[in-house]
Amino acid sequence: MRITRALLSMVAAGAIVAPLLVGAAAQAQVTGSVTVTAQTFNVCKGGPDGSIAACKTPAPSWSIRRDRVANVIRAVGADVVGLQEATNYSTPNGTKTQQEDIRALAATIGYAQPEFDVAGPENECKRPRDADGELSGPSPCVNTSMLLFNTATTSAASIPDGSASGGVVMAGSIASGLDAESAPRSVAWAFLQKNGSTFLAISVHTSNAKTPEGEASRVTFAFGLAPWARALSANKGFPADLPVILLADLNSFHKRQPQGAQTALVNNGWTDSFSAPLQKNISYSTINYSADKRGNPQGFPAKPKLTKKTKNNKKAAATRIDYVLGLNGVRFSRYEVVMFLNPDGTFNPDFQASDHQSVVADAVLP
Q1: CB 299, CB 56: distance < 8 Å
Q2: Domains, the chain, with CATH or none
Q3: Over residues 192-213, mean pLDDT
Q4: 203 to each of 83, 149, 169, 187, 312, how far by Cα in Å?
Q5: I want to staple 141 with a disulfide (CB 3.0 to 4.6 A). Which of 125, 151, 159, 269 is the partner?
Q6: Which residues pair with 129 in a beta bridge?
Q7: From CA 144, how far away is CA 185, in angstroms rounded?
Q8: What is the pLDDT of residue 293?
C-alpha cells in the first residue's frame, strides 16, 4: 500500500513528488519531553568531475546534485542533519570546497552549520601553519562528516564555560588502535537545543574497507563512541548522561557483519531508530549499490530495488548502512527511509542527489 504525505507533494518548483509510505507498522505512543527530527544523509563526494574526489560514474556532477541535496533537506525539514561524504575537496568550479558550498546552500533553506573557531581547540582537523602563520600543509583529517541544524526550530546550546558548542575530532581520538584509514576520519559534533532541551549531535562516516583491519576498526570505534560522548558532555559542563543523537554511515550491515559496528553500538547502550513503532519504506535499501539483474546503472539507477518478504525476512527489511541512533534515554517514535518516487516507481531526478537514500527518525528526548 502506498500513502502520500500531502505537505511534501510540491517541494521543488514544478515537481510533484511525495515520499512513499511502504510497510508501515501500527503506530504506538512514544512520549517524552521534546521530539527531535534527525536526518542522516551521505551526499556522495562533490570534487572535480572525473576525479577520485567526485562521486562515481554514473553520478551527475556535484554542480547538478547540490540543488538536489537542498531539495531533500528542505523537504524533510529535520531539526538536525548529519551529512557524510561532505568533503573539503574543491567543487567542480574550483571556487570553494564541498563543505563551504553546502554551508552556503544550507543558509538559503534555513539551515546553519554549528560555529566553532577553525583555528581553535575544538577543531582537530585544522591545517598546520608555518612560523609566519601561513597555511603550510593539508588537514591531518579525512574530512567527510558535517552537521547542520534547522535555525527555525533548533539553536546552538550555550556552553557554561563560554567555549564553542561544536567542533570536529579525529576518530583516532575517540578510540585508540584504529587502522591508518580509519583513525584520521573526521567526526563532527555539536551541542544543540530545541524547546529548552539540550542534546549532543554527532555525525560519523566510518571507513568502507572490507579488510579484517577495517572491520576491527569500525567495531573498536563503535565501542569507544559512548564513553567519548559522555566525557565530552561532562567536559563542556553538562551531565555526562546528556541525550545523544548519532547520525552515521557505518558501512556495516547485519547480513554481512552481524557483529559489526551497528551491533557494537547497541550492545554498548545505543538505541537503533529502526526499533521505532512507526516504520516507513523499510523495504528500500539506504544505498543503491545492490546487484541488479536488469542492468540498471548502480549508484544512480532509474528505479530502486524493492526487497520482498522471505521466510527469514518477514518484514521485507532491506539492507541498511545508514543509521540514526540514540544514547542516554533517547527513544524513537518514527523511522523512515526517505524516498522520492514518480508514480511509476522510478526516482524523481529532482531529489536523486546521491547514491544513498536519506534516513530520518523522530528522536524522543527523556
Answers
A1: yes
A2: 6-128+136-365 (3.60.10.10)
A3: 97
A4: 7, 12, 11, 6, 32
A5: 125
A6: 135
A7: 7
A8: 59
